[in-house]
Amino acid sequence: MNLFKRFEEAFMGNYGVPPVALARGEGTRVWDVDGKEYLDFIGGIAVSSLGHAHPALVEAVSRQVATLAHTSNLFLHEPEVLLAEKLLGMLDAPARVFFANSGTEANEAAYKLALKHGRREGRSYFVAAENGFHGRTIGALSLTGKKAIRDQFGPFPVDVRFVPYGDADALKETMTGDCIALFLEPTQGEAGVVPPPVGYLEAAREICDSTGALLVADEIQSAIGRTGHWFAHQADGVTPDILTLAKGLGGGLPIGACVGFGDVGRSFEKGDHGSTFGGNPVSCAAALAVLDNLDLGHVRSVAARLRDGLEAVDHPLLESVRGRGLWLATVLREPRAAQVQEAAAAAGFLVNALQPDAVRLAPPLVVTADEVDALVASFPRILTEAAA
Ligand SMILES: *Cc1c(COP(=O)(O)O)cnc(C)c1O
């Protein structure tokens, strides 16, 4: 029986059956189980920041797994301390960190940290953005503004009020001195790679300051060089109170992080939170390899090349290109993203039909100029096939 059929019979239905079965990768290139080669322009959803099988990642992970793979949090280990110090050194203000295994767990930590901090002041509700995505566990899901994945699992244990993303006046109207925290993605990822209007994050920071609410920047998708900055909020000169990270941090190994700035980072007391696997030595070694081997200058130059190349494509199906850095959505004039994804795969490119009318590109941050040029050159033909 083929792999797809076996997948379908063994797995729950939540993913459907993915269209391609991957076997191995090298850099931006991946091969499926039949040996067909693709250029990977989705990178495991902005995760494989160093590409596939990067020698530094392979070496770091192999060495660590052969030395000490797990300690639990009953014992500390050097890789976690090195990683924490490294991350904190990349930020603009003093902070403290908690390591988790995934994005949603990073947000659970943020949620509990904010709740603990806010309840001391008698605060009672969160604010988050419509169409925002913060994860699938109940805390993170309660903050997620996508009705289709949220509503059937409610009601949720806390009051979350949703506002349209990018609308500073709506924030002003909704946030009072009772608000615990505002959860925002600096650019919305799952909503379709949607950057906010200029000045929005600064306005959000000001409103948080005037109401005393915490600003939580969910940078699970936007951080670790994805936008051409280590952290997307740095481009806007806005420092959040809490920052969450995951996807690109481990370069494919599972790790998430919740960073609390200033006093907020001191809110948890012994016993308040934990994770058996969080910050395990192997994932920390992987993250250190990622941070040591990324080149933001390269990211910016290939990102500009990709964006300019796609913007120069003149095709009736292509409406616009939006996003930041190596994190773009090509927006279509008709809801044919699924057909674009399929035509791209047939042409040897992995892309992601993110919304009915938006195709996401988030290649490894080591993608080369030649690989970018190859996608750009094929894009008109892919669009024509998708439109047919
Ligand atoms: C992917 C994502 C999450 C959830 O991360 P998981 O590792 O899938 O739990 C949360 N927030 C944002 C912005 C994301 O892109």
Automatic annotation (TrEMBL):
InterPro entries, per database record: AcOrn/SuccOrn_fam, Aminotrans_3, Aminotrans_3_PPA_site, Class-III_PLP-dep_AT, PyrdxlP-dep_Trfase, PyrdxlP-dep_Trfase_major, PyrdxlP-dep_Trfase_small
Domain of life of the native organism: Bacteria
Gene behind this protein: argD
Binding site for N(2)-acetyl-L-ornithine: R136, S275
Pathway, per record: Amino-acid biosynthesis; L-arginine biosynthesis; N(2)-acetyl-L-ornithine from L-glutamate: step 4/4
SUPFAM superfamilies named among the record's database cross-references: PLP-dependent transferases (SSF53383)
Details of cofactor binding: Binds 1 pyridoxal phosphate per subunit.
Binding of pyridoxal 5'-phosphate, residues: G103, T104, F133, D218, E219, I220, Q221, T276
Catalysed conversion reaction: N(2)-acetyl-L-ornithine + 2-oxoglutarate = N-acetyl-L-glutamate 5-semialdehyde + L-glutamate
EC number from the UniProt entry: 2.6.1.11
GO CC term, one of those recorded: cytoplasm
Main location: cytoplasm
GO MF term list: identical protein binding; N2-acetyl-L-ornithine:2-oxoglutarate 5-aminotransferase activity; pyridoxal phosphate binding
Family according to the record: Belongs to the class-III pyridoxal-phosphate-dependent aminotransferase family. ArgD subfamily.
Subcellular location, record wording: Cytoplasm
Other facts: May also have succinyldiaminopimelate aminotransferase activity, thus carrying out the corresponding step in lysine biosynthesis.
Keywords: Amino-acid biosynthesis, Aminotransferase, Arginine biosynthesis, Cytoplasm, Pyridoxal phosphate, Transferase
PANTHER family: ACETYLORNITHINE AMINOTRANSFERASE, MITOCHONDRIAL, AMINOTRANSFERASE CLASS III
Residues the record lists as N6-(pyridoxal phosphate)lysine modifications: K247
Source species of the chain: Nonomuraea diastatica
One matching Pfam family: Aminotran_3
Essential cofactor(s): pyridoxal 5'-phosphate
UniProt-recorded name of the protein: Acetylornithine aminotransferase
Subunit structure: Homodimer.
HAMAP family: ArgD_aminotrans_3
